[in-house]
Amino acid sequence: MFSSIRNFLHRHRRKLIVTGAVFGTVYLLMSYAQKRLREWQEKEAKKFFEMTRKKQHFESTERTCNQTILSLSKIVSESILSVLNTEEIVQKLKENPENKLLLWEQMKVMIFTRICVLVYALSILQVTLRVQLNIIGGYLYRDSIHEEEPLISSELQAKYLSLCHHFVGQGVEDLVKQIEKAVKRVVEPVSLKKKITLQEVERMFWSIQTILCTDTSEGDPVKKMVHYLVQHTEITDARLDTIVKETMDVLESDEITTVAMSTVSRSFSTVVDEVANLFAVKSAPTNKNHLEMVEDHVVTNGALKLGAKVNSFIDVNKVEIHFVKLLPVINELITKNTCKGNSNIPDLLTQQLTLNDKLKLLGANIYEVFSNA
Questions:
Q1: pLDDT at 205 over 90
Q2: How far is residue 200's CA from residue 61's CA, in Å, rounded to a whole number?
């Protein structure tokens, strides 16, 4: 029996050796493949965990950013309305003074300056804070995944974020002075007695924006955000100086300038939409045979539809209102909740800017760059 087995093995030794080699090779390959698969699975699981952790950290940064923006936007708006206080002029006009024409002239300039400063200030604040907070967020994420010495301490965070406080005070005053000059060039020549259209109001805002964009003496406010942020402070801390220089590079980039100019233009469009509603209301018929409720008016593509049962349209762009009569209701858009959604222009602009997709994407890109650096 043993001899037959021995003979069998001897006769088929080559086949058995080859077969063993094949099975051995297959076993080794399977073991190697399983090891590589486990390593890949562990790598993917770690990558997924890191992505989830990073996403949660970014979302937390985004919430902090929105809360900070809403808080500081309120302070900036109040600062602007305090510097450009129309209430004092309104009270004087109620007393019917001899210089009421002069007061009305001051009033028209101040109202348009108020709106323009709000547009620029809130846009600059949104862009600057998103840049700052996402740079900080990127640094903090890197600190959270490395056990080395922190890249940025709590004290350094406080110093860095306090840079924007200058804009709330002196920065706003500088912005008011610059924008007021542009407003005077556009608005002062317009007579209070003149009947103006919505297109003329829109043209005024466009002209003011154009003057500021081409300002060669003081510079475009959008392109000098660095001035409002850091050029008033002497920085001695080396680490803070590095972060500030990085921030300056970001704020001076073409991408940031393009986004900031886009938000300014969009904000002016929002203001014009609200003014269009004023023209619509002013042109609305009061005769009950035509319309029972003013609220039923719908403004669509520059036209006012007078209720569902009436086929006639009024072209809002052709409606004319005396400039002097338009000024008080425009002023109420700023100070009272007469805008859509029972809001006012400062709150409306803040909400719109906070939800702006371009600004959100900008913040996400900055966070990604500084969290991976």
A1: yes
A2: 42
CA distance 157 to 140: 10
Q: Provide DSSP, 57-111.
A: HHHHHHHHHHHHHHHHHHHHHHHHHHHS--HHHHHHHHT--TTHHHHHHHHHHHH
Confidence of residue 337 (pLDDT cuts 50, 70, 90): low
CA distance 183 to 254: 27
Query: What DSSP character marks residue 196?
Result: E
Question: d(Cα 64, Cα 84) in Å, to the nearest integer?
Answer: 30
d(CA 304, CA 64): 41
Helix or strand (DSSP H, E) at 314: strand 313-315
Give residue for tokens 């004023």: 278
Question: pTM for the whole thing?
Answer: 0.81
103 burial via Cβ count (<10 Å: 0-12, 13-18, 19+): middle
What is the model's pLDDT at position 204? 94
**Residue 288, phi then psi, degrees to nearest 5:** -65, -20
Q: Give the SS3 label for residue 285.
A: coil
Contacts 24+ apart (CB under 8 A), 279-287: 279/197, 279/198, 279/316, 279/319, 279/321, 280/304, 280/314, 280/316, 280/319, 282/319, 282/321, 283/314, 283/316, 283/319
